[in-house]
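Sharing a chain and its predicted structure for anyone who wants a worked example. Both blocks are below, sequence first, tokens second.
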Amino acid sequence: MNLATFETLLTPLGQSAIAAAVELNPTEESFLTCLTRLQKHYPSELAKAALETVTLRVRAKARSKFSRAEAMYFTREALEQASGEMISRYRAERYAGFASVADLGCGIGGDTLGLAAHCGVAAVDADPLRLAMAAQNLAAYGYRERVTLIQDDVTQMQLPTAEAFFFDPARRAGGRRKFSVRDYQPPLPIVKEWLTHTPAIGVKISPGVDLAELDGYDCEIEFISQAGELKECALWFGPLKTASRRATLLPARHTLTGRDAARRISTPLAYLYEPDPAILRAGLVTTLAAQLDAYQLDADIAYLTSDAPRPTPFARAFVIEESFPFRLKRLRERLRALRVGRVTVKKRGSPLEPEELIHKLRLSAVSGPAEPGRVVFLTHVRG
């Protein structure tokens, strides 16, 4: 979709095409069939744009990210890159004390929505189509009047006058992910130049970032998960910095900060804890272990164990029924003796693939009433 087609999509004719596309109830599989039908009544490019809009609005990703997805506009790549409403609102609370914020690289406005709830926003993007979509998306939430949209290149322009910045560099180019912060567009090092303009800067980067690349940046590093899935990493500079490392779990907003605690190792005790992925990426496993009075099973493995249950939002807890060195035959015989008909396999440090192990266990051969399923952990213990 280009800008001209998108502008036509906003006209009465374009809105009629969207309504007609909704009636077709399109899916990814039926897209071409629906497009053929829609082209009988609307120009080809408009029909395609309307159908793409409706298809993206009903996608699970759009609905999981935005509560008003049915009134918003996306491109496929922009939807993939956009921050979800829950995360953007959480992050934007750090800016509650500022009167103005510049959103540098605003895309279709996912982060702008959160920021506009707290302050005036200057939203900048070089892509005129994404900027036009951002305007409509802001209007869908009633925030359009609080945002000034600016089409420009953040590497070339005179930076907006604002008390704080939020920066979301592009991490894809030509459909391919960029893994190094030096390959982002713009590259992360540009932040060091901006800090002379304003010290209050927040940056959204990939949660898979190589932490060694962040050496030399004086910032808080926060890893954020949502419903147990690691979503992103945020860097906080200047007055936005509140800790060295932080792990935050949404939607409940549980958060843990700290530094490495003394490492303690033990063989399996009565309980096993599987930390949230945000805890792992933030390097707070030993911090959590100290909080739980727990031990690691291995110096290089994130599973924790303790002799008493201690409820925590930062990890899933399991009762350890048995533990022993791995032997396929022994494991199969023991599970069958317990009349276990199915298992979930979790692993850290094991070369075995879970599905391969489940197949080799052949638990479907269990006869008679089966016990509830079990979780089998494959891991290192004291090396």
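Comments welcome. Residues 44-57 form the longest helix (14 residues).
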